[in-house]
Amino acid sequence: MPADHDVLIIGAGLAGQRAALAAADAGASVAIMSKVHPVRSHSVAAAGGINAAVSPDDDWRSHAYDTVKGSDFLGDQDAIEIMCREAPAEVMHLEHIGVTFHRNESGAIDLRAFGGASMKRTAYVADITGQALLASRRRSNVTVEHRARSVGGSNYTIGRILSLVMRILFSYSPAPLRLASMAGLFTSFVAFALGTGVILHKLISGTNVPGWASMMVAMAFTNGMTVLIVSMIGEYTVRVLQQVSSAPTYAISRTLGRT
Ligand SMILES: Cc1cc2nc3c(=O)[nH]c(=O)nc-3n(C[C@H](O)[C@H](O)[C@H](O)COP(=O)(O)OP(=O)(O)OC[C@H]3O[C@@H](n4cnc5c(N)ncnc54)[C@H](O)[C@@H]3O)c2cc1C
pLDDT tens for residues 130-164? Predict the structure, then answer.
């Protein structure tokens, strides 16, 4: 329970977790309370990286100037100074606790250009920097106590969960259509083989096959073919859509410098 701890931190994003780490390193017993699960905090969406003047060619003053300028001179300059001064050491600290920052060819932390920065200054972990920071080496399992809601209800109703499942199934690939094609093909093939058997049976042994069985075989064949054809049309449509969406979203209307 929070009452048993020296420090209570509200919020389990990167800011809260970093504060918890600092308090724990200073010997305090820490509790963190969070509205959403820690890894669902917005921090997990921070993909691009962290700005810090870690390059020997860089200077925290340049980082601070870019930051003040980027805020249209409205940012708190004292806070910006502290952030930019401490950022390089903080990035190194993060690396020492297990954040696998991207490296350049000489083995140093690689830096990329970020909007508003006058030089390459962004340390990153592929395009999952926030997630990597939330999941550094010191991560461990803690018991999570889920309390019952006292007010309101979850937005995840059965309808929304079903619609999410349908979107996951159908939005990303034509695989369900391919599955339907295969099912249609398989059904038609089996029905065709059975139908051939029925005809051969009649021709060779002269035995009459009951009408309902022949009817089922004919229906299985036509239904299988229908499913196959409809899903093939679906696959064509998906391929056209995929080609259209991967094409550049502009058209060349005029070419200069050539006749
Ligand atoms: C799409 C996206 C991309 C970004 N890219 C970058 C980037 O490349 N580089 C960069 O430096 N920054 C980036 N940012 C900004 C960066 O993610 C945020 O500034 C940073 O993560 C904020 O951290 P935080 O811990 O303060 O907030 P959050 O990560 O939002 O954490 C807030 C925490 O508070 C908890 N909380 C909220 N209300 C309550 C309550 N009433 N009771 C209890 N708990 C509560 C939440 O559950 C959550 O755990 C990006 C942001 C977004 C959204």
Answer: 999 988 756 666 677 777 888 888 888 899 999 98
Structure tokens that stand for 211 in this block: 């009408």
Tell how far the Cα of 135 is from the centroid of ligand 1, in angstroms.
Answer: 15
| Residue 247 φ/ψ, nearest 5 degrees | -75, 150
Rama region for 224: left / alpha / beta (φ>0; ψ in -120 to 50; rest)? alpha
- Ligand 1 neighbours, Cβ below 6 Å, are 10-16, 33-36, 38, 41-43, 45-50, 130
Mutate to test the pocket of ligand 1, among 36, 42, 94 (most ligand atoms within 8 A of CB): 42
Give the global pTM. Answer: 0.61
Backbone torsion region of residue 198, taken as left when φ is above 0, otherwise alpha when ψ lies between -120 and 50, otherwise beta: alpha
